[in-house]
Amino acid sequence: MKKRLLAAAGMLLSLSALTGCAANGTAASGEQAGGGTMSIFMILAYFVIIIGVMYFVAIRPQKKEQKKQGAMLAALEVGDIVLTSSGFYGTVIDITDDTVIVEFGNNKNCRIPMQKSAIVESEKPGQE
User: What strands, in cross-sheet order, belong to the sheet with 89-95?
Assistant: First the structure.
């Protein structure tokens, strides 16, 4: 029981030292008015660091991918070979504002209109 109590006291002491709450062993002393503002700045700094890490880990790569996808869809032309989000390969027959007509397989009767956003990859016919 004493070991757990000592471990908990040690953890609380180390946490208060990290945040700057207790400099002389008292947390709510009248002399510690400056220490409280220091802990607020520390907490704000932690939030800024966490938000910065989340931006560089989650938001920035997603924006790059969306930009790349938009450039690929803007360069789409009739005759390009495309891969759809459902995994089918086809050839672009016609392009309108939001939709494309894609021909699948060798059968000329299998032409399906679909949204441009359903296209994952595109390849020019002469490229390997």
Answer: 111-115, 99-103, 89-95, 81-84, 119-123
